[in-house]
Design brief:
By secondary structure, this protein is α/β, with parallel strands linked by helices. 39% of the residues lie in helices and 16% in strands.
Length: 753
């Protein structure tokens, strides 16, 4: 996720229900944390970044393995018990690719599928071993067909095409990046009958319309393109051939042609410099206003046979090693309770911003913790640091490790803390809402490198300014109200997918936090390109690596406080209030869907669409919508009420009696709390994707990285699957009831029951 997107998500997509006043938590060891802070060295992190991003760093590359070996050696030198765990994962790489305009204006034209070096950027000149234009887990093929422009290639765009009388069946689509996750674009094209897909970066989204292009500014230059994975992550992440279990040496594998997450049509990314040639060749209807980017052309949809494209992709579908580095500091009192911390290490090319900017912060944390241990500090709980490989192809390294160690993790994992790319700006945090108050406390104790106030105070200021701007959304206004009151914690985001927390939170039920800084330093213009280099990052994203230091200080505090806490740091009233807000949202959504269906029926009966459309243009009526029944949310109302009551009693009991609990009570309380998040899982999983089992948080089927909360209910209503909505009202209420029962049992422990 880009830093700008992280800030936008934080400002616009967080839950607003958790407004409980602050409560006290055990005072952290400020002297220990001051010693930790003194060991954080931005210059050292910058040197690691320069070394690790010096050569292409994708899975299977020589530098990828060298970075793994370097990380392992460093952890060992810092006093950690470190090892390498290797998984053999399916990771396709290109053997032959081609993209040509074979008919239409400007034909013949062959796209440039490599990225030229940038003057002044020494790293970008290291073209040996760079992957060309490529997206992993597309379907191989060699096709020639007419081209159709589909805007962002999201479901609503296909509805618009239908009304314009344009079909993509038997054709190649060209979609621009943005508006939804990359992998949904070829997936939806495939489902609509297309035989190939092209994804380009329009300058309106991350090119010259947003900033000067690199090297003058941070934005994407005309020859840059975005690599990535298009595996159907919304079904499950990880190795497509080992669904739900680890890609160990002797693992049974699904045949590639039967793998549910590998697409069937060939797909390639493209620069906007080359995309202009293809789009200029299109005729047919002029694209609707919202579809028009910033290229100096008239955007047409196409649909005829005038512009034909030849698209060819052949891949090497071999297994390649994924090198996970796992490092442990054993807990002195609770060795079987684990605080997990992770960041991935692999990139698409050099990977300076994504992911190494976060990885070097994690390395400095580990170095500092090792130094503290050598001077006598011993964490109560075990700390496990994880340097993941193969995240970029679709969370392969972390998912295969988590699936392999699932039984042990369910018994021992207290929390998983993740970071990824990092940059200059504001702290963004998403995760399990029971940790919202904990996050707020940490944010209030770390100084922002640019202003000197705490990172929490700076974020409050940003919320207040956003709320005061003309045209502020109701959500921004509500956030401004919260930010004005220091007695309220700032909300954290719900987590969807897009980084290595997914297997922990959504499959195993391990509480998770994902964090990073951003919103001012800009890496989006070089995202997944050969220009995500040390030079670009050091100049435009995090000059001086100051925010790498801020990330290390925030995350290091989280790790130490959780490792050493005598009693749980969770506050469950925040979770209960947040879920209550989600329930209010889905009730409103159900009402909206019912109104939409009635309105559509009325408009179709009156012929309103025909009368309102321009009669000189091709057109068609939208499809009728199925009637939307009134749903009974009584089970959810009851479950949320019980959850709120249980959370209130637990929080009050822990506040009053936590400091006086004896060792046996503390041990018993930990035993009840540790598996609590697992009660939010249902073995049935979500419709169409049983790997995702969390009833509160999931990536959306049609949003990809974006979170869907109460996903079984919400998506069923959105997609008008009302039988599923009824079923998942019951399942989600059941999960919340189990969660409340766990809190009730924990409260009984505190009260001596």
């Amino acid at each position: 996720m880009t830093t700008r997107a992280r800030l936008a998500a934080l400002l616009c997509a967080c839950a607003l229900g958790a407004l409980t006043p602050l409560t006290l938590q055990a005072a952290p060891d400020k002297a220990l944390e001051a010693r930790f802070d003194a060991l954080i060295d931005p210059a050292l992190m910058g040197s690691w970044l320069k070394t690790m991003a010096a050569e292409p760093n994708h899975v299977g590359s020589a530098n990828n393995k060298a970075n793994a070996e370097m990380t392992l050696a460093q952890f060992k030198s810092w006093g950690w018990d470190a090892k390498m765990e290797v998984f053999d994962v399916l990771y396709p790489t290109p053997r032959e690719i081609a993209l040509e305009l074979v008919s239409g204006a400007g034909a013949p034209f062959a796209a440039t599928l490599t990225e030229a070096p940038i003057p002044g950027d020494e790293s970008s000149a290291r073209t040996r071993d760079q992957l060309p234009a490529y997206v992993a887990f597309q379907g191989d093929g060699d096709v020639t067909a007419p081209l159709v422009y589909v805007n962002y290639g999201m479901p609503a765009d296909y509805d618009t095409l239908k009304r314009l009388g344009v079909s993509v069946k038997g054709k190649i689509v060209i979609a621009r990046y943005g508006g939804g996750w990359r992998g949904l674009k070829p997936k939806l094209a495939q489902e609509n009958g297309a035989v190939g897909a092209i994804i380009y970066s329009d300058p309106r989204d991350d090119g010259y319309a947003t900033d000067d292009v690199y090297p003058k500014g941070a934005a994407r230059p005309p020859g840059g393109f975005q690599r990535g994975s298009v595996a159907d992550m919304t079904v499950f992440p990880g190795d497509p051939t080992t669904p739900g279990y680890g890609s160990t040496k002797n693992a049974k594998r699904v045949a590639r042609e039967d793998a549910a997450t590998i697409l069937k049509i060939p797909t390639l990314p493209l620069s906007y410099g080359d995309a202009q040639k293809l789009l200029s060749a299109l005729d047919g209807p002029v694209a609707p206003p919202a579809w028009r980017g910033s290229l100096p052309i008239t955007y047409h949809v196409g649909g005829g046979d005038d512009a034909k494209v030849h698209l060819k992709v052949l891949s090497d579908w071999s297994l390649k090693p994924a090198y996970n580095v796992i490092a442990t500091l054993k807990g002195a009192e609770r060795p079987d309770e684990w605080i997990l911390r992770g960041n991935h290490r692999d990139g698409w090319v050099f990977g300076a911003s994504d992911p190494l900017s976060g990885h070097v912060a994690m390395m400095n944390e580990a170095k500092a913790l090792g130094a503290l241990k050598k001077t006598g500090w011993k964490p109560r709980r075990t700390i496990v640091y994880t340097s993941w490989d193969a995240e970029e192809p679709m969370l392969l390294g972390s998912t295969e490790w988590a699936e392999t160690h699932a039984a042990e993790l369910k018994k021992k994992a207290v929390i998983y803390i993740n970071s990824d790319s990092n940059g200059r700006g504001f702290l963004g945090v998403g995760g399990s809402h029971a940790f919202q108050h904990f996050v707020s406390n940490v944010a209030n104790d770390v100084a922002d490198p640019q202003t000197g106030v705490s990172v929490g105070a700076r974020l409050r200021a940003a919320y207040r300014v956003q709320a005061a701007e003309p045209g502020a959304t109701p959500r921004a206004t509500a956030l401004g109200v919260i930010a004005t009151n220091p007695a309220r914690d700032l909300p954290i985001d719900a987590l969807g997918s897009g980084s290595d927390y997914s297997a922990f939170l959504q499959h195993l039920g391990v509480a998770s936090i994902n964090l990073g800084f951003g919103g001012e330093g800009e890496s989006g213009g070089v995202y997944h390109s050969a220009y995500d280099t040390y030079e670009h990052h050091s100049r435009f994203v995090d000059p001086g690596h100051a925010y790498a230091g801020a990330l290390a200080r925030v995350t290091g505090r989280m790790v130490m406080r959780l490792a050493d806490a005598a009693t749980p740091l969770q506050r469950y009233g925040d979770f209960a209030d947040t879920v209550s807000g989600y329930l209010t949202d889905v009730k409103g959504l159900a009402d909206t869907r019912r109104t939409e269906a009635l309105t559509r029926t009325s408009l179709l009966a009156a012929g309103a669409y025909r009368l309102a459309d321009d009669p000189t243009l091709s057109r068609g009526d939208p499809d009728p919508l199925p009637a939307s029944p009134k749903l009974d949310f009584a089970a959810m109302d009851t479950a949320v009420a019980r959850l709120k009551a249980a959370a209130t009693r637990f929080d009050k009991a822990l506040l009053e009696k936590g400091p006086t609990l004896n060792p046996a009570q503390r041990k018993a309380l930990d035993a009840v709390i540790l598996p609590l998040e697992q009660t939010l899982l249902r073995d049935r999983g979500l419709p169409f994707r049983p790997w995702y089992r969390n009833m509160i948080y999931a990536p959306g089927r049609f949003t990809g990285y974006g979170a869907k909360t109460l996903p079984g209910i919400r998506e069923a209503i959105e997609e008008r699957r009302f039988d599923d909505a009824v079923a998942y009202i019951s399942l989600t209420a059941e999960a919340l009831g189990d969660y409340a029962a766990g809190l009730e049992a924990a409260t009984a422990v505190i009260n001596g029951g």
